[in-house]
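Table S5 (text form). Sequence records supplied for joint modeling of the two-component complex.
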Amino acid sequence: MRGAPQLSFGFLVNSNSAGGIGPAIQGTLILIGLTSLFGIPVGILSGIYLAEFGNNKYATAMRSINDVLTEFPSIIVGITAYGVIVIAIIGHYSAIAGAIALSFILIPIVARTTEESLKLVPNSVREASLALGAHKWRTTLSVVLPTAKAGLLTGTLLAVARIAGETAPLIMTILGNRYFFQGLNQPMAALPLEIWRASLQPQASLQAQGWGAALILILMVLSLNIIVRVATRGRLKR
Amino acid sequence: MTSTNTNLEKVVDNNLKMHSIDLNAWFGVKQALKNVNINIKANAVTAIIGPSGCGKSTFIRCLNRMHELTPNAKMTGQILLDGQDIYDKQVDPVQVRRRVGMVFQKPNPFPTMSIYDNVAAGLRLTGTKKGKNLDNVVRSSLEKATLWDEVKDELKKPGTSISGGQQQRLCIARAIALQPEVILMDEPCSALDPIATAKIERLVVELKRDYTVAIVTHNMQQASRVSDFTAFMYLGSLIEFGPTRDIFESPKNPLTEKYITGEFG
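The corresponding structure-token record, covering 503 residues in total, follows.
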């Protein structure tokens, strides 16, 4: 609530030098977008594999690796991304490195929740489809996935909300930037970074900016939640 | 070879639709079926009765290759459909299931689909879309399942919004829509009240004009009311098989007699 007085249109769109957090909001949106683009398809496909075709030792191995990754400390993910992408591949801090690091946090969560929600679909529904002479993949795609839709959306959303607030991997990958987006291979700003930086500042005005950024981040995650709630409710009513 | 030949002759002679030869089935190490030989005649209702766990559901799940979908399940022996072994390597199980439809114990309409879409599901999922004809197929399937009059004004409602008995008839309509040759029913009435049961039983008798029906039931009155042939199974073995009247009025095996008179089971 201490962030509330900060809120104004200018605060949302101006750059840091003009007293706004525009670059951080833009950066976070780009990060969420990129990470979702990489992470959600991979996560959902892995979840489908584990739930519907996961009756073999590869899947068992995959499942335990996935479990380990889910609980992985995010700072370790950040350091790994720093070592592999920032130093070895690109050579400097970049937005894309941040998105890749966040994907490694997102994918296991999405895979896990996808697997769990597909397992909640009663077997009788699968059998009904198979007994009609539908192929296994068709059954998964047209019958099982729609039945588990609400669970998939919720799980994916929770994972996105989780990565939206991640700070540690970003320190090691996108570094932060006082300016608006300058390219995927350049350092970029993000809300969690902005909050972290501001909290270390001695000036009260900069700290206040941090409070404002925190409020915006919370509001973003909350509205994401509400949007998906409304969307799933509409679908289920039909 | 000779046995196969005589079996083929039988197919022609007795108008057999399906036919199991020395069928054995296992779940893991537990044997569920032991050398079961049952003939299923075309355009007739064959009932399979027996106490719980006798393998009757396993048997009909072998008839459309649903058994093999259970983890650790295996089987040996042959099942002939119109004289062709459906477990032959060249036979696609998906094709078998299109010719041999199935209705399950608990009504299982697709929860995300409307009544209309449920009936159309088989055609859509198997890619045999019929375009404008779809409306007609849905209507005639629902009519055959004696459900049309009850749902014709609410085809857009979810398939799970109607009563249990109606849902079961919806599942029968869904199976009919694919125009299978054989319809298997696995205790289709066990989750239903007596009135809904009576409707399904009437429907089963109707269905044999166009289809071959095999029905598993633990209700002996039901078997005697709807079926032309009855197979009595016990502990995975076929004990007795014959015309329903013979089984119920003059059983040859003392075990059958005991079961039918209610001494065990």
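Note: Chain A has one domain: 4-237.
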